């Protein structure tokens, strides 16, 4: 999947069948924001793509919707503390650990309520293993 453009919070809320305000309120209950989740997604997707041998850094930047590999490289360095090339060369890089660097909790499973109501989301219970 190539991100032609970044999904907006409104588009995501709509695709979940809830209002933007409801999605924002529930994300706040989980202690996060749409922007934090989007950044976490981009970071994890970048790490996954960089683990593959088929994609260049420029290809990964394009897949994630960056118009320039330099912008992607700066963003990745901010997220991971190293450049995409350095990340790729590290054999022991652990993707779940990288996720935990970005988030204190795993990404929530955002689902409409069991009652079928589309006006709110249920917050999952987070437990540490």
Break the fold down into its secondary structure elements and pairings.
Layout: H1 9-16, H2 20-29, H3 34-51, H4 57-63, H5 69-80, H6 84-89, H7 95-102
Describe the structure.
The protein has 129 residues and is mainly α. It has a domain at 34-102: Orthogonal Bundle (Arc Repressor Mutant, subunit A), CATH 1.10.10. The protein is built from seven helices and no strands. Helix 3 (34-51) runs antiparallel to helix 7 and helix 4 (57-63) packs across helix 5. The chain is elongated, with a radius of gyration of 16 Å. The relative contact order is 0.16.
Strand-residue fraction?
under 5%
Radius of gyration: 16 Å
Helix content: 40-55%
Looking at the overall shape, the CATH architecture of the domain at 34-102 is Orthogonal Bundle
Query: Structural class of the helices, strands and pairings?
Result: mainly alpha
Say what the CATH topology of the domain at 34-102 is: Arc Repressor Mutant, subunit A
How many helices in DSSP terms? 7
Question: Outline, from the CA principal axes?
Answer: elongated
Poorly predicted parts: 100-129
Name the average pLDDT.
76
- Through-space gap between termini: 31 Å
Largest sheet: none
CATH class of the domain at 34-102: Mainly Alpha
